[in-house]
Amino acid sequence: MTDIDIISAKILRALTRDGRMSNVDLAHEVGLSPSACLRRVQELERAGVISGYRAVLSPQAMGIHFIAYVLVGLSKHTKDSQLGFETAIASAPEVRECHNITGTVEYLLRIEARDLAAYKYFHTEVLGTLPQVSSIISYIVMDSSKDERA
Description:
Layout: H1 6-17, H2 23-30, H3 34-46, E1 66-74, H4 79-90, E2 95-100, E3 107-113, H5 116-126, E4 133-140
Antiparallel strand pairs: 1-3, 1-4, 2-3
């Protein structure tokens, strides 16, 4: 594991805000020379601290106006049941995140849909038809005051 010192933490915060910033701008922001900054970034990449770069898409600009977090309980608590559920969910474009969690249910999903009608279709025709699913609890996002997912 790589030790994250103050300078590396500054680099990571800056790249989290803007992964496309130039090395010169990054170096200036964190108080390093460009060559020292580049070496730090490359070491963070080699160590796996920085695992990749990606585009952050605007759901609204893509016509997504409905977000929900959904708790899903399975009827059987077996590995086969989990694998069957995960395989089915992997092909559902509405599911942006799928987390196996502890507690009273097995999964937490982040769902993005065009609108309430599209979510209802997903809820009924996708989740509701999976034989592994025994319970579905939806939490509708009304607003997000903080969202640091990249």
